[in-house]
Amino acid sequence: MSSLNWFIVLALCLCQALDSSNAFHKRRMTKRFNLRKNRDPDTPQIPIGTDGYIIRRGIFFEEGSINGSTQEGVEFENVALYCRVGGVPSPSVHWLKDGKRIVQAGSCGSQDDDEDLNGFADQKLSSYSTFSTLYIDCLDETDQANYTCVAQTATHRETRSVYLTVARSETPALPTLKACARKGRPARIYLATNSVLELENNNVRLFCRAQGNPTPTITWFDADNRIIQAGGNYLLSKNGDLIITNINWFEHMGVYTCEAQNVYGNDSTSPFLYPTARD
């Protein structure tokens, strides 16, 4: 077989592989963001590419979120409350304790908790699946309260709540008491992107907000597990987020990894980014 024929065969194989990969990830995002064929013209929706799929505007809570029931904790122990939110455009997420806003990071975090999460909300499409976790350490009676996860955009607001009870501990374990007395806290990611569907040539922000004492260091890795440095299409925000500008499918589609670390421990999250073609 001539060199030209070999080149043609290799090119065809590459195209087939790319088509298969694209189809696989399209199915993944179809399931994640509830894409469907456009059959309901009265529902607010956004077209995706040229294949007839749409994604519906709004906010939804995913499996694993707090669901309105009561959760029990034990004095001196730790609990975590989970809120998993999806939406178009990207919803901001925060927590309330008995109706008052909680600043999660505080002086031991990697960012200002009030920073706007909707920096790209004016784009034609910005569909995010976001995980938010509220960590409450060394429980005492003052932590017994109603906790609410709030997800909102400029036009929508949805909430989920749970009532946390704190049972008294008659014989707390010594390691638990020592951990409560220690000033240091391990690095823990409390706000993270799970997956993003965005049009090519737009910008995206992958959330990675961590808390701990001392303040955690944040490191990002690309889809090939290489450390991401600021420059080119990549911006590293002081709060831990990764901003990717002018995204395209060939260069930026894939699973990224954010690692938060301090001397007491580490945490990681792996968001998936899918740039989709424009019309």
Please name the defining characteristics of this protein.
279 residues; alpha+beta; Immunoglobulin-like; five-stranded mixed beta sheet; 15% helix; disordered N terminus
Number of separate structural domains: 1
β-strand number? 21
Number of DSSP helical runs: 3
Mean pLDDT, all residues: 80
CATH class call: Mainly Beta
Sheet with most strands:
7 strands, mixed
Please state the CA-atom Rg, rounded to the nearest Å: 22 Å
CATH architecture: Sandwich
Secondary-structure class: alpha+beta
Q: How much of the sequence is in beta strands?
A: 35-45%
State the low-pLDDT regions, or none: 2-15, 32-54, 106-114
Description:
- The protein is an alpha+beta fold and 279 residues long.
- The chain has a single domain, classed as Immunoglobulin-like, CATH 2.60.40.
- Helix content is 15%, strand content 43%.
- The chain has 3 helices and 21 strands.
- The chain has helices at 3-33, 174-181, 249-252, and strands at residues 36-37, 45-48, 53-56, 58-61, 70-74, 79-88, 92-97, 100-101, 126-136, 145-152, 157-167, 185-199, 204-206, 208-213, 217-221, 234-236, 242-244, 254-255, 257-262, 265-269, 272-276.
- The strands form 5 sheets. Strands 4, 6, 9, 12, 14, 18 and 21 form a 7-stranded mixed β-sheet that branches.
- The longest helix is centred in the first third of the chain and has 31 residues, at 3-33.
- It is globular and about 60 Å long.
- Mean pLDDT is 80; it is low at 2-15, 32-54 and 106-114.
Give a summary of the structure in a few sentences:
It holds the Pfam family Ig_3. Residues 44-165, 186-274 form the Ig-like domain. The chain has one domain: Immunoglobulin-like.
